[in-house]
Amino acid sequence: MAKEISGIIKLQIKGGAANPSPPVGPALGAKGVNIMDFCKQFNGRTQDKAGKVLPVVITVYGDKSFDFVIKTPPAAVQLLEMAKIKSGSPESNRKKVASVSWDQIKEIAEDKMEDLNAFKMNAAMSMVAGTARSMGITVKGPKPE
Amino acid sequence: MNYIEVTIKLKPFRPFNEIVVAQLSGLPFDSFTEDEDEELVKAYILEGDYVQTDVENVLSPFEDLAKIKFTASKIEKVNWNQKWEENFDAVEVGEFCCVRAPFHVERSNFTHEIIIEPKMSFGTGHHQTTQMMIEHMESIDFTSKTVLDMGSGTGILAILAKQMGAKEVVGIDIEKWAYENMIENFDRNNVDITACNGGEELIAKIGKPYDVIIANINKNILLGQLPTYNSHLNTGALLLLSGFYETDVDDLIQAKELDGYALIHQITKETWCALKLRKGD
Description:
The structure holds two protein chains of two kinds.
Chain A: E1 5-14, H1 24-29, H2 35-45, E2 53-61, E3 66-70, H3 75-82, E4 98-101, H4 102-112, H5 121-134, E5 137-140
Parallel strand pairs in A: 4-5
Antiparallel strand pairs in A: 1-2, 2-3
Helix pairs in contact in A: 3-4, 4-5
Chain B: E1 3-11, H1 16-24, E2 31-35, E3 40-46, H2 52-59, E4 67-75, H3 82-85, E5 91-93, E6 97-100, E7 112-115, H4 128-138, E8 146-150, H5 156-163, E9 168-173, H6 176-188, E10 194-197, H7 201-206, E11 210-216, H8 219-231, E12 233-245, H9 249-253, E13 261-269, E14 272-279
């Protein structure tokens, strides 16, 4: 029989940086989960993505056990990386200092379709391209059909 | 340590929820949550790392595209893990060692009994890596040895080393609360162990070479600290490493600092791994 689910928790944590402080501590602690066990597992599994923001979906079961799925970084985070812009720096915005290709947009859109609530690849690509433009990142060339 | 919760109200929410996270990820924020219904993003940072003008600087360029307002509030540190800690099972490693909380009944049928009240520190014996380290330690003669437990957490492995006859044991942890917690647990188990709060720089500062170094942390930290461990281990000394997966083992044992070390024993439990190495001449 499938285990009873007592809650689903969505967080974004930098790889290797889970610790029992907020938001991890209060969100998991309230459900009686051993926070330290989650932190050890999350950090163990994300050592090769240290410092990158990773969305994680944690399923907590009635017996206080849990499992979790780690997703790829948000599209905006991947765009900064592809455009080689340092996030958080003053130049990282709106000055059209960088560009990405449609191939790169497609690459992000492919693994983010579900998160973007997009049913068609074309729509997902348009959304990612829109995010890029809002960030001052130019998308090179005509959009492929 | 207290945390700062920065709440950012966004209109429109998408795609600025992601842009805000991307921008703030360049600052020392370590986690984020989103609430699409309330059009909020929350970002979390250590109180000491929070600079309001840094946040203003990375968000202000988007103000002509979206309404972005943020507020910051302090979250006092409490034991978020209390609910779990109030009612957990004792851990038994064969007949060799039992790890229990003060609220469990005393156990007499184990060679070693360790009493831990974790208060949000790593090391309750429940994790596979701690159990494997205990298994590695079972076959070591600690009599008159000097031992370092790096990333000591609750102090569980340091306490066991001392109970097994080590002459001198040092426990180091970078987290203040873990440092405070290990002192409580050393007292609770009536062992005389030196507790230190800090990182690997303390190893050089304390200076002595060790007969055994125990480190259950994670792959990246271990790789970074291997040179320091290596320069503070006597010839023939033992190095116990854990906190990583089976797939990480090659990266560790191929590290150049471990040239000349012999892998004596490797234990694997549910893909977690623990290594026992001996330093050669």
